[in-house]
Design a protein that fits this description.
alpha+beta, Beta-Lactamase, Alpha-Beta Plaits, five-stranded antiparallel β-sheet, five-stranded mixed β-sheet
């Protein structure tokens, strides 16, 4: 062999060896990079799909819990619980509850049907056409369901490609019924596709009938090895990646939904990735410059093709995590990255819609609470306020005074009850008219309010009767001072619609604890003292003493004796004749 040929051979070998080595190293490095990118892509896809499924599931759970908290549904089931034999279609809540269920079903594009059961498990109302009673199919009674649960492959469901979300309806910490949402697999869209996504529960059963995955023994063995320790998986180990051992067709990613102890599996076709590297061995026969140039172009294209979409998705995910649910991922391609971008955008629409509905429900709830508080305040005013004078009525007086007396019995504080009656008030109504009488009562009420102290209670308890509760008096003179102010008011005539009206008052006073220990006895003794004042000439006052009670008792006993004697005909008239002494003639008689 000539030197030229030897040199050429040597140069060829010297050139070929580095080319071969560099090509092999480039292939090894490229393959390692491909494996890393594929794994990262699979992890991102799995995490995104799993988050999308989780968000969609939480969305329908949230809708079901909002229905369970709906005031119409709670009122409807409460009415049903209080009257089990009622015709519930005649209930005032039947129509709004039915409309609410239909509206919620329409919002979920008919993929979710809702059923309402009472506390006994009987079907009451719903959007499904063929729903039986809960107690007919399920072992757990509604009363035992205290929080939202998810039933998979439940006997009550007639669609095996569906799951059931059960939420208790709770009023005052008591379960009065349940709301069942039957969610079809179509509701989850791509997140539960039978060709790409699979969900397995803690018992190893598929949530939906996706049995074709059982043919892959490798991935099923991997899943079965996870099931015993599913509760011990750390959060940082949320997503895993595995390859089929007997085929290069698919790539699998799986993660654990810790809220439900489910395994979420994503399957992607690997051929699109593998085809890119199938031509690399052929490049070993090409020269160093061409190989390096092609490698540079391929590396650049691969980096652009695989890392740019991942970075775009990562950026969008970070913005969504920060609370921007309006973010849109703009990856325009027809491969898996394009699908992933579309799924991400759909997931953001679902999350954004759920967030808006929750905010709207919160606003509606706050508005209802404010309206309820206002109504309760108005009802309380009607219950405790005199409609004419705006003073407290008898109910309010008894409640407020009783609360003070209950505290006073242990603190030895003194109080007084002042009973006021307007003398001859009926004459005002009879002579001038009831409208004049009402105006007079309003004027007197305003004057009485000026006479009481802060902490005292003034109430109109009858047509022309008023009660004052003097709170915390040190001496009886303090109550007497108030009484004298009240009498002083009536010394001057009132101008009632241009008419001068004179009115007087009779007042009775009773002290706590000297005269009575209960509010009822205090009012009674003050009333006795008031009538004593009225019989003594009116326009004055009397302080209760035991003699007044004895007098009332004596009169009551006398009346009772006379009534008994009359009823028994024990009373009769006796005549005594009167005669003229001179003539002896009867001239009259005495009875």
């Amino acid at each position: 062999m000539s030197i030229k040929k030897s040199f050429q051979t040597y140069i060829l070998l010297l050139t070929s060896i580095p080319v071969i080595v560099m090509t092999v190293l480039a292939y090894i490095l490229a393959y390692g990079k491909y494996m890393e990118l594929t794994k990262n892509s699979m992890q991102t896809t799995t995490s995104t799909y799993m988050d999308g499924f989780h968000a969609t599931l939480n969305n329908v759970i949230s809708d079901n819990e909002i229905l369970a908290g709906n005031l119409y549904i709670q009122s409807f089931l409460t009415e049903k619980a209080n009257n089990p034999g009622m015709d519930f279609t005649a209930s005032m809540y039947y129509k709004p509850v039915s409309e609410q269920l239909d509206l919620q079903m329409d919002a979920n594009t008919d993929y979710v049907t809702y059923s309402l059961y009472d506390i006994d498990g009987y079907y009451v109302l719903g959007t499904a056409s063929n729903t039986g009673d809960w107690s007919e199919y399920m072992n757990t009674p509604p009363a035992k369901i205290t929080k939202t649960t998810i039933e998979t492959n439940a006997p009550i469901s007639d669609d095996k490609n569906a799951i059931d979300i059960i939420t208790p309806v709770i009023v005052k910490d008591k379960v009065i019924g349940i709301v069942r949402a039957n969610v079809k697999i179509d509701y989850f869209g791509a997140f539960a596709s039978g060709e790409e996504c699979f969900i397995i529960d803690a018992d190893g059963s598929f949530l939906f009938h996706q049995d074709d995955l059982k043919e892959d023994s490798y991935i099923m063995n991997r899943v079965n090895s996870l099931l015993p320790n599913i509760n011990n998986q750390a959060e940082k180990e949320m997503v895993y990646t595995a390859f089929k051992s007997n085929s290069s067709t698919y790539i699998y990613g799986y993660g654990i939904l810790h809220d439900y102890d489910w395994i979420y599996i994503v399957r992607m076709n690997r051929k699109a990735y593998h085809a890119i590297f199938s031509s690399l061995p052929l490049l070993l026969a090409i020269g160093l410059i061409i190989i390096l140039f092609i490698s540079l172009i391929v590396s650049s294209q691969l980096t652009k093709k695989y890392t740019d979409p991942i970075m775009e998705l990562n950026s969008c995910m970070l913005e969504a995590t920060g609370g921007n649910y309006q973010i849109v991922c703009n990856i325009e391609s027809k491969d898996e990255f394009g699908q992933l971008s579309n799924c991400f955008n759909e997931m953001m629409k679902i999350i954004s819609g759920t967030n808006e509905r929750q905010l709207e429900a919160q606003r509606q709830l706050e508005a209802n609470e404010a309206q309820l508080i206002e109504h309760n305040k108005h009802v309380e005013e009607l219950a405790y306020t005199d409609g004419l004078t705006s003073l407290y009525n008898r109910i309010a007086f008894m409640k407020l005074a009783q609360d003070i007396l209950s505290e006073a019995k242990s603190s030895y504080k003194k109080h007084a009850v002042i009973f006021i009656d307007l003398d001859d008030f009926k004459n005002v109504n009879d002579t001038l008219g009831h409208d004049y009488g009402d105006d007079l009562l309003i004027q007197i009420s305003r004057k009485f309010e000026e006479c009481i102290e802060s902490g005292d209670i003034l109430a109109r308890t009858g047509g022309d009767e008023f009660l004052i509760f003097r709170n915390f008096i040190d001496t009886p003179e303090e109550a007497i001072s108030t009484v004298e102010k009240l009498i002083e008011i009536t010394k001057n005539p009132f101008n009632v619609k241009g008419e001068r009206v004179l009115i007087s008052v009779s007042i009775g006073v009773s002290y706590f604890p000297q005269n009575a220990l209960s509010l009822t006895e205090l009012i009674k003794t003050a009333d006795i003292a008031m009538y004593n004042a009225k019989t003594s000439g009116k326009n004055n006052y009397r302080i209760f003493n035991s003699g007044m009670a004895d007098e009332v008792s004596r009169k009551s006993e006398m009346i009772a004796v006379l009534q008994t004697a009359i009823a028994n005909e024990e009373m009769y008239m006796v005549y005594q004749p009167q005669a003229d002494v001179a003539t002896g003639k009867i001239i009259g008689c005495k009875l």
